[in-house]
Design goal:
The protein is of the alpha+beta class. The protein has two domains: about 5-155, Alpha-Beta Plaits (2-Layer Sandwich), CATH 3.30.70; about 170-325, Alpha-Beta Plaits, CATH 3.30.70. It is built from eight helices and twelve strands. It has helices at about 25-40, 55-60, 110-125, 175-180, 185-190, 220-235, 245-250, 295-305; strands at about 5-10, 15, 80-85, 90, 95-105, 135-145, 145-150, 155, 195-205, 255-270, 275-295, 320-325. The strands form three sheets. A six-stranded antiparallel beta sheet has the order 3-5-1-6-7-8, covered by helices on one side. The chain has a four-stranded antiparallel beta sheet with strand order 10-11-9-12. The longest helix is centred in the C-terminal third of the chain and has 19 residues, at about 220-235. Pfam families: CRISPR_Cas6 (PF10040). This is CRISPR repeat RNA endoribonuclease Cas6. InterPro entries: CRISPR-assoc_Cas6_C (IPR019267).
């Protein structure tokens, strides 16, 4: 499954105020821009639209159900992108920068040029309640061969990404045959495990029922990473993850435990124009250790970091970083 991280840079064209947590704001501005420049009917709803199959707004924003399940009993595709922003600045002066990242997943990667045009439109129309204008300066694609300019100096630099080699999130480390061919099964049996420090940067809920009273369990947390990647592959890529023996892989996590948790429950919110109200964005943030995690599963979870995990990933929630420590001696 290919992914395409994009680094996006704006410059403020005037004074303005934005919220400290910006992914929901940026997502909303991009969606409105996609409707303005690409919607033949000029506005949603999209349920009965005859043009929806080729529509970027429909693909990126609308919750729709496939006729048949593609992943377990799952019919509702996860959104094929993540928006992440470290800038918590609230007051902007003319000339100040606003940087953020957008990760496109699977087939959505091919939409990058059209998304760039919409991002330029979104900045011109303005962000936040005051519609503060920002100029799009550049968009850089992080490809497997290095950074590539998609947008610069007020113009789109390429109309397609078909000639680029994109980063690939492969299930090979978790496939039984691949592990056997590299001697991994024996290595795991003989102590091929390690400890990992995990940092939850934004509110994280690894399952629907997780709340402020839910204890952190290693298997549940790691299972959510596997489910996140597998469901994205099933709906937005070639579904190569269907070959992963989930039961066997999860069975290797029985000895994995949580240690030294330093977590707090954090509550943010976003304003929904469609619902006309604030929507809570809640979850755990902080750090903890995972002990005795199989090394090859650890490598997989590290690769999956750009996808986030759990509920609200598209809004920047579930962002984690993965820091392997010294391996546990056999």
């Amino acid at each position: 499954m290919h992914i395409l991280p994009m680094t996006i840079t704006y410059t403020a064209r005037g004074e303005g105020r934005l919220p400290p947590f910006k992914p929901p704001l940026l997502r909303g501005a991009l969606g409105r821009a996609l409707v303005r420049i690409g919607c033949r009917r000029r506005q949603p709803p999209c349920d009965d639209c005859p043009y929806r199959q080729g529509c970027l707004y429909f693909g990126l924003y609308v919750a729709f159900q496939d006729e048949t399940p593609r992943f377990g009993n799952m019919r509702m595709p996860p959104h094929p992108y993540v928006i992440r922003c470290d800038n918590d600045q609230t007051a902007f002066q003319p000339g100040e920068r606003l940087d953020f990242e957008m990760v496109l997943i699977g087939r959505a990667s091919g939409w990058a040029p059209a998304i760039a045009v919409a991002l330029a439109e979104a900045g011109e129309r303005g962000f936040g309640a005051g519609r503060h204008p920002f100029r799009l300066d550049e968009i850089t694609l992080q490809t497997a061969a290095g950074p590539v300019a998609l947008y610069a100096d007020g113009a789109l630099r390429r109309a397609t990404i078909d000639d680029l080699t994109l980063p690939d999130l492969t299930p090979l480390p978790l496939l039984k045959e691949e592990r056997a061919s590299h001697g991994a099964v024996g290595a795991e049996a003989n102590g091929g495990r390690q400890s990992v420090r995990v940092v939850l940067h934004t509110p994280t809920r690894w399952a629907n029922r997780v709340d402020a009273r839910t204890p952190l369990e290693a298997r549940a947390f790691l299972k959510s990473v596997l489910r996140r990647v597998s469901s994205l592959s099933a709906f937005w890529a070639d579904d190569e993850w269907r070959e992963v023996p989930f039961g066997e892989v999860l069975g290797t996590l029985e000895a994995t435990t949580v240690a030294a948790p330093d977590l707090r429950w954090e509550s943010l919110s976003r304003y929904s124009l469609s619902q006309g109200t604030k929507i809570p964005l809640e979850g755990w943030v902080g750090t903890f250790l995972l002990r005795q995690i199989p090394a090859r599963f650890s490598a997989f979870v590290g690769l999956a970091q750009p996808l986030h995990l759990g509920k609200g990933s598209v809004f920047g929630l579930g962002r984690y970083s993965w820091h392997p420590l010294e391996e546990t001696p056999a």
